[in-house]
Amino acid sequence: MINIKNVLNKNFFSPFVFLILLNSCSSMNVTEESVYDGGIQTVEASVKDNTSLNYETKAILANATVYFEFDSFKLSSKSIQTLRSAVTAMKENSSIKITISGHADERGTREYNLALGQRRAESVRDYLAVNGVSKSRVLVKSYGEERLIAEGSDESSHSKNRRAEIN
Amino acid sequence: MKIFFSLLFFTQLIFSELVLEITQGSEDPYSIALIEFSGSKKITNEINSIINTDLLRTGEFKIFRESQLLSIPTNEEDIKFEDFKLLGIDFIITGSLTNEDKFNISASYQVFNVQKEKKIRTSKIFGIPNKLRQLAHYISDGIYEEITGLKGVASTKLLYVTENINDDKIIFNLVVADSDGSNEQILLKSSEPIISPSWSPDSKKVAYVSFETGMAKVFIQTIATGKREMVLENSSQISSPSWSPNGKFLSLTLYQDGNAEIYILNLKNQNLTRLTNHYAIDTESSWSPNGSKIMFTSGRSGSPQLYEINLRKFSSKPKRITFEGNYNAKGSYLSSGEGIVFVHRSENNFQIALKYTNESFIRPLTNSKLDESPSISPNGNVIIYAITENGMSMLSGVTLSGAKFRLPARTGEVREPSWSGFLR
């Protein structure tokens, strides 16, 4: 059942309110309004099932996670060492394609961390490219602080989260 | 067995709502007497309770209920103003349920100025039975406006993300709730993260980042219909959506240039205009109230700081606007344009800070360790943000008048609040 007043008051200004205010001769504030509370529809996201690598490559690349300093996307010499085996694996199996995902620890803002995770993943891709692995074989994306691997608020947990992984 | 399970499910729904906890009030509140509304007790009790909480939450009122008064008026002519002056009360609120049937419910309320011994407002609100809370919120806002001269936000909505674990599976929900955390309704359910929710200027749509396709993508969803569209479907990663005040543009962060850059998308013709061009991270764009400037976070000085671009002088270099500390991010403008609110790192703590344009220093507003994603109410008076305490995240708020309140989740985590515009 739709009340005429409801319909009128759906817009920000209602002719009713103006009329009443104009006609009021005392210094008292007189108002009338209708509650508008629109409905809400719930939707479910359709999550894509990501294709995973085959067994062998998973094993080879699984240990190629590299770590970073706070607010940095520079590869340390330790990271470079870790990535050497990944380079070899990619060169030996020239058909495999990989995804590098970048991550950040929970401190700071989510969007900045998303961009930071992306830079970290790109650092790894750039290193692979410089060493002969074509960029076309490497997909890069970021999860920012949305996929924490360590839940604590101490530096030990934070340092485990500042990473780039190869999947 | 079925009944047992549905009961469990029902209680789960109840406990996921937020609970209001007011932790600090303002230094110089108005004293008001809230007389119980006349009418069907079951309904008036709820209305009075909501009005009481709404007004307390603004931090600007000290509320006297009937048990604290010297006399209780039964009608307008009956008010003994002296009894109220003695208690230092500035205003009296009376009201009644004026109509109640299956389809309609309406209430009227009056505000009296005690010093002047005069009625200064009489208002009528028309509503429907299952929108009782919103009716009460409209009354709270009317009272707030009459006494303070500012627009109230009790009838506005909050948008936020919750994270819960159900049967070992993580569920993310994008939720809309009343400004007091009640009446939660789910907009989107997903098993992948949702971040950066933001209201369109007319509060009819929301934009957000969802990881459901395997990477960060921006979606726009119409609240009433649930209709969704992915923004720039053929692009790769996109994030950080922010609506222009006229609703015609969306600023976004794109990653196609080898580093995060800000672009502006014309929602009508899908034209993309690049705004930043620097090898450092540029993200978290937000528009000034008149749409002439965009503020964003950039790492170009070596650490995250806030910068501003004047859209009318397109080619000019972004102007740096934060200089204190080595981490200033996620800025948004106060609706009056008088200043900005942002996340500021002080020693090892991330806090919400305020900086007025005509001052050179930062004013911290909060003081815990991991405060993030501040959002300002449409009347510019209240800032809501996410806080992490004992490993649990929840929403907290501060008013510019010095009041603090908290909306803790009873299960799961709550984050990324975004305040709607005015809905009245």
Characterize the structure shown.
The complex is a heterodimer of chains A (167) and B (424). Chain A is elongated, with a radius of gyration of 28 Å. Chain A has 167 residues and is an alpha+beta fold. The model of chain A is unreliable at 1-16 and 21-25 (pLDDT under 50). Helices cover 39% and strands 16% of the residues of chain A. In chain A, strand 4, helix 5 (110-130) and strand 5 form a beta-alpha-beta unit. Chain B is mostly beta strands and 424 residues long. Helices cover 13% and strands 44% of the residues of chain B. Chain B contains four helices and 30 strands. In chain B, the strands form seven sheets. Chain B has a five-stranded antiparallel β-sheet with strand order 1-29-28-27-26, with no helix packed on it. Chain B has a five-stranded mixed β-sheet with strand order 3-2-4-5-6, covered by helices on one side. In chain B, a hairpin with a 6-residue loop joins strand 24 and strand 25. Mean pLDDT of chain B is 90; it is low at 1-17. At the A-B interface, strand 1, strand 2, helix 5 and strand 5 of A face strand 6, helix 4, strand 9 and strand 10 of B. Strand 1 of chain A pairs parallel with strand 6 of chain B.
Topology:
The complex is a heterodimer of chains A (167) and B (424).
Chain A: H1 4-8, H2 15-23, E1 29-34, E2 43-44, H3 55-61, E3 66-67, H4 77-92, E4 98-103, H5 110-130, E5 138-144, H6 155-161, E6 163-166
Parallel strand pairs in A: 4-5
Antiparallel strand pairs in A: 3-6, 4-6
Chain B: H1 2-15, E1 21-24, E2 30-34, H2 41-57, E3 61-64, H3 81-86, E4 91-100, E5 105-113, E6 118-127, H4 132-148, E7 157-166, E8 169-178, E9 185-190, E10 194-199, E11 205-210, E12 217-222, E13 228-230, E14 238-243, E15 249-254, E16 261-266, E17 272-274, E18 282-287, E19 293-298, E20 305-310, E21 319-320, E22 328-333, E23 339-346, E24 349-356, E25 363-364, E26 372-376, E27 382-389, E28 392-399, E29 404-407, E30 413-419
Parallel strand pairs in B: 2-3, 2-4
Antiparallel strand pairs in B: 1-29, 4-5, 5-6, 7-8, 7-30, 8-9, 10-11, 11-12, 12-13, 14-15, 15-16, 16-17, 18-19, 19-20, 20-21, 22-23, 23-24, 24-25, 26-27, 27-28, 28-29
